[in-house]
Each structure stands twice: as C-alpha cells, then as structure tokens.
Specification:
Elements lengths: L11 E11 L5 E4 L5 E14 L2 E4 L3 E4 L6 E16 L1 H8 L18 H12 L3 H16 L8 H11 L6 H8 L3 H11 L4 H19 L5 H7 L5 H12 L3 H28 L1
Antiparallel strand pairs: 1-6, 2-6, 3-4, 3-5, 3-6
Length: 274
C-alpha cells in the first residue's frame, strides 16, 4: 500500500498496486469488512460475491462499505490499481453510493468511459506506475472542486479511527464542540454511518490485523486491548462481521499463509532450476 497525496490524506487511506499470477492454490480469497470504500481499476479475470453467487468484476468498480465477508476468486494474471477511501472521503470525492442492495460492488458513474479506457490500456501494458499517477491526477482534479476543510463530523470520525474505535460519542461530541444529537446527525450525512457503527468496524479491522500479524494470539488479551468488556463480547462482535469465531479466522489465516509460503517455495525452486 502507498500513501496518498498530502492534499488527500484526510479523505484517502492509501493507494494499492497489484500484479499477480493466480493458480488454483492462490485463486481463492475471502475479504472481510474494513473501514474503507475501494475504487479499483482491474485488468484480468476476477469474480466477487457471496457463497457460490459470484459475478465477474468489471474493469472499474467501487466496492462499497459492507458488514459481511465476501468471496473473491481470481484467475491467471491480475493487474490492479486502486484507491482506499475513508468512508467520508468516498462521500466527498465519489458522492453517495449508487446502490444500497446486497451487491458488494457497483460500477461508478463518476468515472468517464474515456478515463476507464485509458486506465485499462495502461494496465494491459503493465504500466501500473503510470496508471497510479493518472488516478492521483484524477482524484486531485475532483478534490479541487470541493471544500477540503474537514467538518466537525469528519474530525470526530478521524479521531475515532486513529484511537482504534475507542472513546464515547459524548467525548467525541465535546471534542468537536457539538451536541451528541448534532454529531450523530452529521455522521449520518457526512461519514455515511453512525459513530457506533464506525467504532465497531474500526475495532473489528484492528482485530483482523492483530490476528494476521501474530503467530500466537491471546483472545482474552486482544479483547482487553480493543476495549471490550470481556472475551465473550469480543467474540460476539467478531462473529457479527466475520460470520465465524476468532479462532476459526486465525486457523484460516494460518492456512492462507502456509499456501503462500508453498507458492513462494515452488517459485524459488523453478528459478534455481532455470
């Protein structure tokens, strides 16, 4: 992941650039809820959905905020350039979601066919750096047409994310000089969700990262670090977003990492043999 332009830093979390060749061993991925909205430009064959209901991803798409896991299957060579927006950044730079249905992605009306075709040509040619520069120019042009000064609700949302979802709505409201009712109303309009929903999502994302990065995890300690009353509360919240327990998620992560190491070993063996 790459940092955004400083002008966009309070609206954009990061840029992403990907080039990978997927085999049957690495084709399947499960994507869990995160505190972002993704705008992606894709060259390759990938499918996204829930269960067996997979739909092929278009060359450009927006993956809206969701509170359930989705399945991603990629075939062969995949190239992608993407931008991860904070939820409020997506509202400011892309506008309101075009769909509130269960479909995990939509085709963005804000991206012109000409710009989408340009991005596809660059990705097809393997020019991801040029594609990323073009994407940033496009974002900066959109940003130049709006007021970039963060509102009290955006300041509060940023603080909530930076503190890992900890704190109270009353404390946030006091921090930005609003009443609780004013803050909650502005959150709905300018962040796209309530303070409580953002807090829950932020803590779930933090739990994912901690489990992914550690070889061993104490769920009791993790629950305490993330501000949960006890492990049972943490497990219920985790299951609500992941549709499985933290223990099963950790087993899934270890299996994924084993498969990745296996692919890396085979590639190294082939390189030596050649």
């Amino acid at each position: 992941m790459l940092p955004p332009h400083p002008t966009l830093a309070h609206l954009v979390r990061a840029y992403g650039v990907l080039e990978d060749v997927h085999t049957e061993l690495t084709a399947e991925h499960r994507l869990y809820p995160e505190c972002n909205v993704l705008l992606a430009f894709l060259h390759g064959e990938s499918y996204l959905g829930v269960g067996d209901d997979l739909k092929r991803l278009p060359p450009v798409y927006v993956q809206e905020f969701r509170n359930f896991p989705v399945r991603l299957r990629s075939c062969g060579l995949t190239r992608m350039v993407a931008v991860e927006f904070f939820p409020w950044g997506a509202l400011r730079l892309l506008g309101p979601p075009t769909s509130n249905g269960p479909n995990p992605c939509t085709i963005p009306a804000q991206v012109s066919p000409a710009f989408a075709a340009r991005m596809q040509r660059l990705l097809r040619a393997g020019q991801q750096d040029e594609a990323l520069s073009a994407l940033e120019e496009w974002l900066l042009a959109r940003a130049s047409r709006i007021d970039l000064e963060p509102s009290p609700a955006v300041i509060a949302a940023t603080r909530l994310v930076e503190t890992g979802g900890l704190g109270t709505v009353a404390g946030l409201a006091e921090h930005v000089g609003l009443s609780v009712r004013q803050l909650e109303r502005q959150f709905r309009d300018q962040v796209g969700m309530s303070p409580k929903a953002l807090s829950r999502l932020t803590r779930f994302e933090a739990a994912q990262h901690r489990i992914f990065e550690a070889e061993q995890v104490s769920f009791t300690r993790l629950a305490h670090d993330l501000g949960f009353a006890d492990q049972a509360h943490f497990t219920r919240e985790f299951r609500a977003f992941a549709a499985q327990s933290p223990g099963n998620f950790m087993a899934e992560v270890k299996d994924f990492l084993r498969r990745q190491r296996g692919v890396a070993f085979v590639q190294a063996e082939r390189a030596v043999a050649s």
